[in-house]
Amino acid sequence: MNDSIDLLNEEYSITDSDINFYKKNGFIKLKNVLDKATLDYFNNEITKVVTEQNPLLKKPIEERNTFEQAFIQIGNLWKTNAIIKELVLSKRLGKIASDLMQVDGVRLYHDQALYKEPSKKIKNITPWHADQFYWPLDTENTITAWIPLQKTTPDMGPLAFSMESHKHDFGRSLEISDESEAKIQKSLSEANLELVDEGFDIGEISFHGGWTFHRASANTSDKVRAVMTVIYMEDGVKVSEFTNSAHPLDRDAFLPGLNPGDAAATDLNPLIFKR
Ligand SMILES: O=C(O)CCC(=O)C(=O)O
User: Fold this and answer.
1) pTM of the model
2) Smallest CA separation from ligand 1 atom 1, residue
């Protein structure tokens, strides 16, 4: 293991007030979870893989649909890259996920890099959505670590959250689209839910629950917004019934071979942390 990732073996202390904030609001932003040396190390590797594998390289941003404009998305990186695996399976992050959800252990659901390109021409927002729409998991105990690989200023499209929106079920059946942006925005405004839309310092990471509504503004800066995400689920959860067309696709990608009722624990879902 490289010296710069020793930090991944150290524990990050989560307080009762962090747990209460997460429970009440459905997300939390935590400072100094990683340091610059560690982030530079992973940024270098993840950016190399994203550049090599970018499925949108030959498609100009103006010709893409809203989802494709929002970010370059590449998943399951940990499976083929030993360096990225150290970050994705790190106990430091896995324990934070367990502590915030107040569960005994977490497994990996999947990882993905989300790179929002700089764009002056197109407003490449990430529309409002809740992730769990896509996931055939029989639990509410899912959480995403959104890990910016550099300081992320407000003009780069940092992740923004609607406070307490995990208690609000309007819009849960909308996939990421222009429709989800318009309809969920309207419903969150009508419910007077507060928006948290701020930059991320270097080393700051957010954790949001599967039903928390979130979005991101366009990247109007001149730098790429490089982000890695790790999605955790409580250890012991089962595959749910498939109730939309995204569910079997996610099953194939992240829970291969499983059917509703099976334990969500394939070779792609290692146990990351257990008390
Ligand atoms: O990075 C983005 O713009 C969106 C990220 C997101 O939706 C997620 O991590 O759940």
Assistant:
1) 0.96
2) 114
Q: Strand, coil or helix: what is 66?
A: helix
Domains of the chain by residue range: 2-256
Angle, CA of 243, 106 and 8, to the nearest 5°: 135
DSSP conformation class of 62: G
CATH superfamily of 2-256: q2cbj1_9rhob like domain (2.60.120.620)
Per-residue pLDDT of the chain in tens (275 residues, 90 and over written 9) = 455 578 998 999 999 999 999 999 999 999 999 999 999 999 999 999 999 998 887 788 888 988 888 889 999 999 999 999 999 999 999 999 999 999 999 999 999 999 999 998 889 999 999 999 999 999 999 999 999 999 999 999 999 999 999 999 899 999 999 999 999 999 999 999 999 999 999 999 999 999 999 999 999 999 999 999 999 999 999 999 999 999 999 999 999 999 999 999 999 999 999 99
Q: Ligand 1: does its nearest atom lie under 6 Å from the Cβ of 264?
A: no
Q: How far is the C-alpha of 211 from the C-alpha of 164, rounded, in Å?
A: 10
Residue keyed to tokens 């849960």: 172
Sequence-ordered alpha helix ranges (H) in the chain: 16-25, 36-53, 66-70, 82-88, 91-101, 178-190, 246-254
**What spacing in Å lies between the alpha carbon of 221 and ligand 1's midpoint?**
18
Strands ordered across the beta sheet of 126-129 = 126-129, 214-216, 159-162, 195-196
Q: Please tell me if the CB atom of residue 207 comes closer than 6 angstroms to any atom of ligand 1.
A: no
Ligand 1 nearest-atom number relative to CA 70:
3
